[in-house]
Model the fold of this input.
Amino acid sequence: RSWISMVLVPIVVDGEKTVLICSRRVNEEILSTIQEEEAIPKSMLWDTLIDLVPAGVFWKDKDRRFLGVNKNFLDFYAFESTNEVLGKNDEEMGWHVNTDPFKNNEYRVLAGESVLNARGTCIAQGSVRDIVASKIPLRRNGEVVGILGYFTDRTEESDNGHQLILDGFKI
Done:
């Protein structure tokens, strides 16, 4: 009996993101040897994955305080390190134009509900930005212990829409 070992490698070809799939046949005798040689700690996979995601990723505790963020999050807000956000909540950071929708969504998540594709406005690097955020409960043994979320910047989409409307009035 044999197995197929597969590795997915994210690559960019002509400016487009894609995945290269590499595979090889492996018989059972050498499978355990390969698994030991190729074993990658879950923490390394997690760190690599969240930095690869083209979105600001964050996770919070039950008090809505940041426990971690990815590189895209840091870059979006122009932070040098996670120390600038760890242990703080959104209100302490002062980056939302209207904090209530974000806060209410997080309370819904802490009650066990997922909130997907919620639109909002924030201030990043001195500019008002339109974002779309999704948040899900983090659970341990069935109990909600925090929030996992991500957001994407949709400002250019919004600006393009506004420009079309303004152009219509100029004609």
